[in-house]
Amino acid sequence: DDAVRGSSSLRAAALRLFRDESADALGIEHACGLYAIKGFYDHLDPIKVGEAALKLGFPPVNCVLTLLIHLGPRMLRTGPAVSEAIYPSLSLLAGCKSSVYFARAILFAVMDKQSRLNLPGLRLHTWIDDIIHRAEGTRRQILLAIAKAGATLKKECIKLGLFFSSKNKLLASSDSFAREVQKAFLARGVVMK
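Above: the chain's sequence. Below: its structure in token form.
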């Protein structure tokens, strides 16, 4: 996960641009799939999150106490009016520091499976819930690698009750190659813009 102390989404984007420009200068074909998960924190199942966190060695007492906060009653307030308590069954509190740790825990298995695909020229990056596939090599290698990785990612996310947003983007070394890659994604059921 690239979301670490001293880093920023701007820095990650600048590094991605640097890689693209370097590949272009060297005449290397490349493509990049940028995936955003729709309402990520709103669709996380706290039970699955807790199980994933415990598998990765989170301290059990801390894990349970933190999840109780995420599952606690929520009330809406406007002026003097306060709603009745709402008890969430899905979602983590976006903006809570523990949500970032839980996001990493739930996505660990997904990204581990992605890395085990062993596709030549494919690199993986995450920024909490934003996932990036970047491939370099021959057009054939890229078409195979990035489309297969995208389809596998979609399948694994669906298992967790997570779905791609309509904001998924595709970047490639040329417009004509971008259209080829887009077709390869579509053939595997992944829509990229």
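The radius of gyration is 19 Å.
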